[in-house]
Design goal:
A six-stranded mixed β-sheet has the order 6-7-8-3-9-10, sandwiched between helices. The termini are far apart. The mean pLDDT is about 90. With about 240 residues, the chain is of the alpha/beta class. It has ten helices and ten strands. The protein has a single domain, classed as P-loop containing nucleotide triphosphate hydrolases (Rossmann fold), CATH 3.40.50. Bound molecules: adenosine-5'-diphosphate. Adenosine-5'-diphosphate binds next to strand 2 and helix 1. GO terms for molecular function: ATP binding; ATP hydrolysis activity. Pfam families: ABC_tran (PF00005), BCA_ABC_TP_C (PF12399). Keywords: ATP-binding, Nucleotide-binding, Transport. This is Urea ABC transporter ATP-binding protein UrtD. It comes from Muricoccus nepalensis.
Length: about 240
């Protein structure tokens, strides 16, 4: 893929006359780990919904590589290789960590890829690689129900990785995590980015700092500021919005 992996140009979303997104433009390059922050109601969730096709833009264009997503439906967009992790983990408690990953593989993007995996007996190797990546290899045989909150979040990220997405959208991954789990999550997302692109919506600014890459600040449905965490935290427009001065 040449050019940006994700490209929003002048995107607006209007709900009953209310502009949840207002002429939002955003460019994410391949391999980037982008954080999106902003006060409640800034439009972060609506932005994720527009990228995944859950909500149609009222105006503007959304592109994923060479694909125009603007009028595509949710299933077709997921098939292109965009994975989304919602805030609450949705793992299967009564299955083991390994089985959860196996199940994610058995819901393939296309049936032929599933068949190929099984024929090549590559599934176990793929699950093993993802277990290592999410740091849960020693817990492979444990039921998901006995994992900590943080470990369940990592397992769900692993389930998305089984689908080999090119772009991963992650909604508030560290809410409710311990400090140590938060640090480990930052390290995990840094590992994942590079080969894939990752967009993280988050409230925890220390976590965003640990992610260490470009930050986009949304406010009233549009981009208020963009740059390093230090640059945006020192931006007078951002200070005004967050502190209400
Ligand atoms: P954030 O995720 O940054 O908190 P949202 O994208 O959830 O912001 O919401 C942006 C604004 O759009 C909010 O004021 C919210 O009330 C409004 N909004 C979101 N979804 C809908 C909807 N389906 N209908 C009407 N208003 C909505």
């Amino acid at each position: 893929m040449s050019g940006p992996v994700l490209y929003l140009d002048g995107v607006s979303v209007v709900f009953d006359g209310f502009r949840a997104l207002n002429n939002l433009s955003l460019v994410v390059d391949p391999g980037e780990l982008r954080s999106v922050i902003g006060p409640n109601g800034a439009g972060k969730t609506t932005m994720m919904d527009v990228i995944t096709g859950k909500t149609r833009p009222t105006a503007g264009t959304v592109r994923f590589g060479d694909h125009d997503l603007t009028r595509m439906d949710e299933a077709a967009i997921a098939n292109l290789g965009i994975g989304r992790k919602f805030q609450k983990p949705t793992v299967f408690d009564a299955l083991t960590v390994f089985e959860n990953l196996e199940l994610a593989l058995k819901a393939p993007r296309d049936p032929w890829s599933c068949l190929r995996w099984r024929l090549a007996a590559g599934a176990r190797a793929r699950i093993g690689a993802v277990l290592e990546e999410i740091g849960l290899a020693p817990r492979a045989g444990d039921l998901a129900g006995v994992l900590s909150h943080g470990q369940r979040q990592w397992l769900e990220i692993g389930m998305l990785l089984m689908q080999d997405p090119e772009l991963l959208l992650v909604d508030e991954p560290v809410a409710g995590m311990t400090d140590q789990e938060t640090e480990q999550t930052a390290a995990l997302l840094r590992r994942i980015a590079g080969r894939r692109s990752v967009v993280v919506v988050e409230h925890d600014l220390e976590f965003v700092r640990a992610l260490g890459q470009k930050v986009t600040v949304l406010h009233e449905g549009t981009m208020l500021s963009e740059g390093t965490i230090d640059a945006v935290q020192n931006d007078p427009r951002v200070i005004e919005v967050y502190l209400g001065r």
